Amino acid sequence: MSQNITLALDGMGGDHAPSVVVEGASLALERYPGTRFIIYGQTQVLAPLLSKYPKLSQASTLEPTESVVTSDMKPSYALRNGRQSSMGLAIDAVHKGIADGVVSAGNTGALMVISRFVLKMLEGIDRPAIVSLMPTLNGESVMLDLGANVDCNQEHLVQFAIMGEVFARLILGKRHPIVGLLNIGSEEIKGSDTLRQAYGFLKNGPFEDRFYGFVEGNQIHQGVVDVVVTDGFTGNVALKTMEGTAKLIAEFVRRTFKSSWMAKLAYLLSRRSIKNLGLRLDPRRYNGAVMLGVNGIVVKSHGGTDALGFATAIGFAVDLVKGQFRQKVLAEMDKIRNTHHIAPIQL
Amino acid sequence: MSQNITLALDGMGGDHAPSVVVEGASLALERYPGTRFIIYGQTQVLAPLLSKYPKLSQASTLEPTESVVTSDMKPSYALRNGRQSSMGLAIDAVHKGIADGVVSAGNTGALMVISRFVLKMLEGIDRPAIVSLMPTLNGESVMLDLGANVDCNQEHLVQFAIMGEVFARLILGKRHPIVGLLNIGSEEIKGSDTLRQAYGFLKNGPFEDRFYGFVEGNQIHQGVVDVVVTDGFTGNVALKTMEGTAKLIAEFVRRTFKSSWMAKLAYLLSRRSIKNLGLRLDPRRYNGAVMLGVNGIVVKSHGGTDALGFATAIGFAVDLVKGQFRQKVLAEMDKIRNTHHIAPIQL
């Protein structure tokens, strides 16, 4: 692999592909000069788009593909029929070592299933996990799994914790991230056996005093931990609940500012501040869910994102490749195996 | 039982007891004239408080108790040692038929464990469930279980659905509530076996076309369903995540309004509207989690609530007693047993 990073982009995935993909890559290139892109998709639409960005054109190769994995395709169908699609071939590029990572705004389930099938899992990791950033009162944290696995046992949770900790180091830039397990309280009767066993392992495990213990739902945004670990069912419900609550409040605020002429005037005066507030909560800043655990860097951009959001997703891929995410996770897993302080869990 | 409703109040439970209990009862009495209260607690502090409210004094009896279940007591300890406490004796009053229901702002776990032990379960219901109101874009919905059970099987979820539907009829005043099961998507690979089996039963079950199917976390606040059914782990995480997200946004809004003199001026102009927004999201309006499934009406007020919140909790108890909650749930369970359209689940 050269010094420069090469990323495979699914040129056709997402609601606003391919324009958002090309524009996003152009923005990312400004932030990460030297990055190279292989863009998979229909060249007749991609080529004219690309020609508008001379720098990006120089840094990119177009690879023609015909078929597309659509957003309503079932993952199992996409796995059988989508291997020659823009998504399938972009993943293949990582498998073949042509690219260091792949970014797609396409069908999440398909991306996960094809990635897992083509790239296989990282040694020692049994299940992939979806991780993303969360806004907190004092910055950002990471949370996983956000929906890859419905049922998780204690070993899966421990593996998620290890991957999440490395992810937080590379993406949040924290040297010593604090890790917490999501639960519904700290009382004796609370939590499942699975959670208690994962707790038991992590308590005596690799993070030492950086394992915070259990955290509750209201602490996710408090920033008491840098890494929130949970199963994919709970994580997905929590993530979507956040979205729902934020929308509810936004709607109530909107109605409030329409409720009187004084409120309307107030809105005019505070527009700029409100816009700043919007930026702080801007989903584009939090765009990019990474599929951890597969043997390759796979980043999922939100399907409805704009170019800025897609550029953020590309940034995750660059940071994980540069930071040698996979090698670091493997090293952590080795450390655990070798130190053998793993009484409650066989890893 | 007389025409008038009698409620047992735990006079000592909660952060601001006993004053909030007495003041809350006084507010509730204005809304529900004719209600009678038996207030359990230390008479030397309760009597002088009560003397400030002549109407309430007439409608109330004081029952002296010495011990108190504290907020940090483990439920198992409270069960062994708290039976003569203000909480324990208030629950006992329901068991003995002296009171129609009990309201406490004390230790949630203790209230649940003692209630279950003393009152036993409603026939046909295996597990208690905690239910509460949720604000939605178009009004309110109810959600359960919010934390009574970590693990739930399909039968428990179906029982929660039945209790939640009756609860929504009585508390939201909806004649035909729509019921949904919380899941992480509707795709084939999504959701646990438990959820799919509960889905299968409810699809052909008592609600007919009022069973909406699966709902996701972002739909809880949308008001697409009146009853959101989930296990206690997921429900509790979702509830606390909402609290956390609301607090995060509130803090960002606060910082926004402090960020410039124009924003500060805007705040002054919009103060009243913002106050209205506050009322709409006022946790006191949503105060009162009801322990459904035990053989008696048991309402838990938030420990930190004020008098208005405690009055809301009392209102739940009144509505459930008047609406004959238990009899209606038993009738629904009978209907299910007799119509035998219960292929997938033995109820």
Compact summary:
The structure is a homodimer of 347-residue chains. Helices cover 47% and strands 16% of the residues of chain A.
Would you mind describing this structure in some detail?
Two copies of one chain form a homodimer. By secondary structure, chain A is an alpha/beta fold. The model of chain A has no long low-confidence stretch (mean pLDDT 90). The first copy, chain A, has twelve helices and eleven strands. Chains A and B meet through helix 9 and helix 10 of A and helix 9 and helix 10 of B.
* Low-pLDDT residue spans of chain A: none
Strand portion of chain A, in percent? Answer: 15-25%
Tell me about the largest β-sheet of chain A.
11 strands, mixed
**Derived structural class of chain A:** alpha/beta
Overall pLDDT confidence of chain A: 90
N-to-C terminal Cα separation of chain A, in Å?
Answer: 31 Å
Instruction: Count up the helices of chain A.
Output: 12
The global form of chain A is globular
Report the C-alpha radius of gyration of chain A, rounded: 21 Å
Could you spell the SSE succession of chain A in H and E letters? EHEHHEHHEHEEHEHEEHHEEHH
Describe the protein's topology:
Two copies of one chain form a homodimer.
Chain A: E1 6-10, H1 19-31, E2 36-41, H2 43-50, H3 54-59, E3 60-64, H4 75-81, H5 86-95, E4 101-104, H6 108-119, E5 129-136, E6 139-144, H7 154-172, E7 179-182, H8 193-203, E8 211-215, E9 227-229, H9 232-257, H10 261-280, E10 289-292, E11 297-300, H11 307-322, H12 325-339
Parallel strand pairs in A: 1-2, 1-4, 2-3, 4-11, 6-9, 7-8, 7-9
Antiparallel strand pairs in A: 5-6, 5-10, 10-11
Helix pairs in contact in A: 1-11, 4-6, 5-6, 7-8, 7-12
